[in-house]
Amino acid sequence: MKDLFLDCARNAALESEEKLVEVLDQSVFQQRSLVDDVLDTQLVDEERFLENLSKKLSIGWKEELERDDVKPRQLRELCSAQVALRHRLLPVYFDDPDASEDDEFAGEGGEERAANGEGTGRLEIATYDPFNLTARQAASQHIKVPIQWRMASRTRIVEGLQSLYGVGADTFEQLLAGRDLNEDLLDMREDVNVIDDDDEEASVVKFVNQILREALDQRATDIHVEPQKNQLRIRYRVDGKLVEVPVPENIKALQSMVVARLKIMSNLDIAERRLPQDGRINLQIEGKSIDVRVATIPTVEGEQVSLRLLGQEQFNLKKLNLGTGINEQFRNLLELSNGIILLTGPTGCGKSTTLYTFLTELNKSETRIVTVEDPVENKLEGILQVAVKPEINLTFANGLRSFLRADPDIIMVGEIRDLETAEIAIRAALTGHLVFSTLHTNDAIGGISRLVDMGLEPFLVSASVRAFIAQRLVRKLCPTCRVETSYKPEYLRSVDFPADYTGPFYEKGGCQACRNSGYRGRLAIYEVCMLTAGLQEMVTAGRPYSALKEQAIKDGFLPMRGYGYAKVMEGQTTLEEVVSVTTTEMEGT
Ligand SMILES: [Zn+2]
């Protein structure tokens, strides 16, 4: 067995044979799945390793798990969610012997199928671990038709299971299979908010936990549970876009239980169904604590529940995927000991991610960092964070004022909206603090006039602000399925795309990895306006926007569109994405 695995691994980008032997020995000793252990350690290329294994074992390899031409319901009926999800067996194809009778197109290719010996009534099931005997036994016990075993990659099987059965379908099936559903059961556990996979028993609690866990796995920022007339729709917001989650077919039957469970978790009044309510959950998952803000809205179809998952993100400069020039500029800015660094852009342009990244980079034991935010979106270990509370007069300005007496090195103020806050921020900067904040303007240079319009003296702006950074988010092309494309020269000229570029352009494709959207994740594009000596002089002199911009460009300022075009040339996003987010400029605001 060990030799077989080593053999298959050698042709699959094996990193270290020694390590693999170690993993295999451990796995055998602990009687665990060798396949899972090998894949978990990421020592080999999953796809190639499993394909090699399938060849050695003479089990048919499934490259694509497209189910365009099959009936998902039939597959679900033949192989129940419990068997499929518990053992990770994916039914991929049923060679229905009766199909030709009611098949409209039976005439075409019907003979061909017969000649190929098709229509045999076998169910093709894909596994990634052919040595899992428990799974095989369960399959042969529960599935009433002959089985044709196939192999496919673990990733594709897991994805396939989810789209075929829906999140939490195994639990759901057991639930419908006739347990007493009673709302009292929802509250029986002591730690209502600890999500624990080991809970074997099927329950609404487990089902809701599966929905939450899946959302976390997908890096969702929001979950919406939306009752509709004939269905309970569940949607996640991933990378800023709403994605409908495949759910078990009859989930509507459990709607009130699911909603009640969520309300219990967030300490809401479950008897109150006619008024909107707000609450919070502190989820414990794998030792990590996640804050969830919960809001219920009564609709005509029932109560809708929205959950916002806070603190889901990890921050580091590398993740911002910066172009080299900007990377260096950011690093230089972070080495400053005083001054103001302002981020600009509309709501939802990713300013807070950049701010949190800066703070995370600066978060060391010898620096004291304090923030005033509205609200605190992510909790950062070791940083003192305060949320504004206007009702008790804890505003940005007041928070900032008291912080200055608390000996900080670095201060972050969620937003500068008024003269009072702006003045305190400047005082902080001039007395040796590094201050980060945001401004509601479209472009970097526009930040200058915004501060002046608030009533600040131009010389104070040029003396304290070190840089204005503007940003927008563009969708990132899915690297697996992006396709090459081209543009007419006239179009490229009209959007000022560099004429000397001869490399390829890409547009979106669609594949399983990106749920056919063609995009995966988002990417921030930036422009950084450093307050150079030349620019400082012009700001103090009160020169207009156009003159400031001209000077900035002379001093090396690259407008955002140029930065975005570099990302287009790298094939990370499309030309349209960059053009559309950089066109809605209200220059000089
Ligand atoms: Zn794709």
List keywords for this structure.
20 strands, 589 residues, globular, single chain, seven-stranded mixed β-sheet
Q: Could you characterize what this model shows?
A:
- It is a single chain.
- With 589 residues, the chain is an alpha/beta fold.
- 38% of the residues lie in helices and 21% in strands.
- The chain is built from 24 helices and 20 strands.
- A 7-stranded mixed beta sheet has the order 5-9-10-11-6-7-8.
- Helix 21 runs antiparallel to helix 22.
- About 5% of the residues have low confidence.
- The structure holds zinc ion.
- Zinc ion binds next to loops.
What's this entry about, in short?
This protein is of the alpha/beta class.
Bulk shape: globular
Helix content: 25-40%
Distinct compounds present? zinc ion
The count of DSSP E runs of length 2 or more, i.e. the number of strands, is 20
Low-confidence stretches: 101-115, 179-190
Amino- and carboxy-terminal Cα gap: 69 Å
Structural class: alpha/beta
Mean pLDDT: 84
Strand order of the largest sheet: 5-9-10-11-6-7-8
Biggest sheet details: 7 strands, mixed
Note the total helix count: 24
What fraction of residues sit in β-strands? Answer: 15-25%
Radius of gyration: 29 Å
